[in-house]
Amino acid sequence: MEQNQDKLKEIISHSKEYGFIFPSSDIYEGLAATYDYGQLGSELKNNIKQYWWKAMTQMHQNIVGIDASIFMHPKTWKASGHVDAFNDPLVDNKDSKKRYRADVLIEEHIEKINKKIEKEVSKGKKRFGEAFDEKEFRNTNPNVLRNLKKIDSIENSMKKTLEENDLEGLRQLIVDLEIACPLSGSRNWTEVKQFNLMFATEIGSVAGESSRIYLRPETAQGIFVNFLNVQKSGRMKIPFGIAQIGKAFRNEIIARQFIFRMREFEQMEMQFFVQPGEEMKWYDYWKSMREKWHKNLGLGEEMYRFHDHIKLAHYANAASDIEFNFPMGFKELEGIHSRTDFDLKQHEAHSGKKLSYFDPELNESYVPYVVETSVGLDRMFLAVLSASYQQEILSDQSKRVVLKIPPALAPIKAAILPLVKKDGLPEIGQEIANELKFDYNIQIDQKDSIGKRYRRQDAIGTPVCITIDHDTLNDKSVTIRYRDTMKQERIEISKLSSILNKELGWKSLLEKLN
Hints:
Layout: H1 2-17, E1 21-23, E2 35-37, H2 39-58, E3 63-65, H3 75-80, H4 82-85, E4 87-92, E5 99-101, H5 102-128, H6 134-140, H7 142-163, H8 167-176, E6 193-196, E7 200-202, E8 212-214, H9 220-224, H10 227-233, E9 240-249, E10 264-274, H11 279-295, E11 304-308, E12 318-326, E13 329-340, H12 342-351, E14 357-359, E15 364-366, E16 369-376, H13 377-388, E17 389-393, E18 399-403, E19 414-418, H14 425-436, E20 442-444, H15 450-460, E21 464-468, H16 472-475, E22 477-482, E23 488-492, H17 496-504, H18 506-510
Parallel strand pairs: 3-9, 19-20, 19-21
Antiparallel strand pairs: 1-2, 4-5, 4-6, 7-8, 9-10, 10-16, 11-12, 12-13, 13-16, 14-15, 17-18, 21-22, 22-23
Helix pairs in contact: 2-13, 5-7, 5-8, 7-8
């Protein structure tokens, strides 16, 4: 765990040094849990958005996108349940004066037990070698079974207390498990209290309850209130989806772990409207599709796992998270939820407007059920960055820091490196850049030795470097150097565009999703 925390510190430092992420309001000593995306960070973030948007709307004829307002009528949040039920159970440690989410403390305790299981499995692998049957071992080893029983017991207790809103029972579970404050080691806890996470403000010039409005805590409601607008104007037929990327705001008391949990963040959400009774079929479909989308990036299949929710949200009849192995351990990256018809029916009740769909095939009207996929863009950014960040010792014992970002997502797609700043080489570099810039974000780098320039481009994740030397003047060829393998090949300038399209283009990434 300590090693992983060190990696997180390295990523934070690297992000600032190379222009990926800066602390917000940095010259004023920053503002807690807020960050600014720098020149490379904003490019990477936009590329992640494009990958999601293209996979959703371009690859599916029955999914369209919208961009709803951040401000919504206050009744929206009453209807959605956020005014009454959007709470976190918080507990303070009396000695460290630090505040924690009670459920997260328990989940982290469960994760420690999970680590004991994995350690036991690892010992078994070493002991039995090639003869090791992992499935059999997990089903029969007494230490593994004992720890699994512990986890089941804790999860069942937590589920019961959360569903019954039994805050004293939740505190007692923390006490019984002897969970200590991670900072002080103290077990001196206050009672657990609920805290609403919405930011409230005033709209217009008159203060008072009538003008009270909220910054949206999620983007989904903007989709639900526009369900009929999109369906009718787009002549959409069930099943169909509405996608949206946008900012959301939550007054997180415990905002920490870099950009993993922030008060201002961005979501990529898609609500898929289906016939009642078919929601579980589509729930399973989208679980599979979203897993495929993530693993398609090549960050490592072992970096992902599914986690079914212990406590279902008030709107769901099934919910699962895709968790990613961040530097601080496995944490939620994306949620897939079967939301039933809760949202549309709530908005019908509070608005007085019908939100039903007439199905011409069934010749009847119904309120559709909804399957949701929701991924945090900032968390996705951190997943890509942390999995891509590597320190390598090379054959000459030198060290390089490299970001092995999936090529289609890389902020700079190709760097053009004239060997010297004379003899017409910079001019050829500019000609190549002028040709490629319509399709790719290109950087011309002329400072320092070629080796230092390679290292600099490795550190920002540039997949391809194009070196122009004196031979280029005669053979109209350049040297391409690939980031991940560091291999080099000589190719004709006229073939550059087609090679880069194969290496860096969206098609090579998206066609694997078919």
